[in-house]
Structure formats: C-alpha cells, structure tokens
Amino acid sequence: MPRRRLAAVALAALAASGCGGSDPPPRAAGTPAPTASPCDAARPDDPIPAPERLVTPRGTLVDEVASLPPNTKVSGYVPLEPDEFVRRMTRRRGLRVLFKEAEGTDAEVLVTDGRERSFWKVVLACPGGSRFTVLTGEETTPGAFRAGRG
User: What is the pTM of this model?
Assistant: First the structure.
C-alpha cells in the first residue's frame, strides 16, 4: 500500500475511533475550569442568602453562615478590592465606623448600624474582587463581639 494511502487510512481510523476529538479531558470534582478567572474561582458556585440584618455592599455573595452564639460568622465574596470596600462602608448612610484599617491587599472594618455590630476581614482575591469573613452580632446581646468600642 502506498505511503499516502496508508496515512489516509490511519487518519480515517483515528477519526472514526474518536481519538483526538475536541472534548476536553474530565476534571477532578471541585477543580475550576482551566479558563476560570481568579474572580470566577473566588465567587461561590451556589451562593446562599446573607443574614437579614447584615449590612452588605451591593453584589455580595455569601457561601457560608455559621452560628457562633451570640454572634454569626458569614463568609463569601464581594466585588470590591479591600481599600474600596472600606471607602464604601465609611460612606454608607446609617453606618458608623468604629475601626478601619486598609493595607492594599487586605482590610478590616468594624461598623454598627445601631442594631448590629459587624467586624469585616476582607482579602484581595482578584482584580476587582475579594473574599470576606464577617463576625456580626446584635448590639444589645450580652457577650457579643465588642472589640473597638467607639
């Protein structure tokens, strides 16, 4: 059989068997797609509702709420970098900032709306987005988080 014909037959057999197809190889569970951006990887896949009384910036996505009586711990993603997060919380009507510290890649801010006191830790995850953890509790609850009284 001439070489060209042999190559054509081999190529046809390869195509017919499905080898060299365009389907990507399977990924391990929980592994982000190779095309996922850092922000896609930082955002929760299945966000859940934030606690009703927690004051959050627009676009906040929550992936965990844990009861730590008398407080609640909330974690998730916010579409802001840490410095911008602090600026927005500082300007937000109805909130009083009791403590703030912004260091570029991370920030902490303690705020109250008179009903809830919340301590936020925000860490840069990607350009334009951060992961956060917030500990929040009622102002009048004995033993609730009170660091940084103002």
Answer: 0.70
> φ, ψ for residue 88 (rounded to 5)?
-65, -40
What tokens does 28 get?
Answer: 């391990």
Task: Look at 4 and 34; give whichever has higher pLDDT.
Answer: 34
Return the number of other C-beta atoms located less than 10 Å from residue 30's C-beta. 6
Measure the CA–CA gap between 108 and 113, rounded to whole angstroms.
Answer: 17
Q: Tell me the per-residue pLDDT of 48-84, one tens digit each, with 9 for 90 and over.
A: 999 998 999 999 999 999 999 999 999 999 999 999 9
pLDDT of 33 > 60? The answer is no
Contact between residue 81 and residue 130 where contact means Cβ atoms under 8 Å apart: yes
Question: Residue 57 gets which letter from DSSP?
Answer: -
Instruction: List 76's β-bridge partners, or say none.
Output: 62, 132
Nearest to 55, CA basis, from 129, 120, 105: 120
Q: Are 139 and 114 in contact (CB under 8 A)?
A: yes
Cα dihedral across residues 99, 102, 106, 112: positive or negative: positive
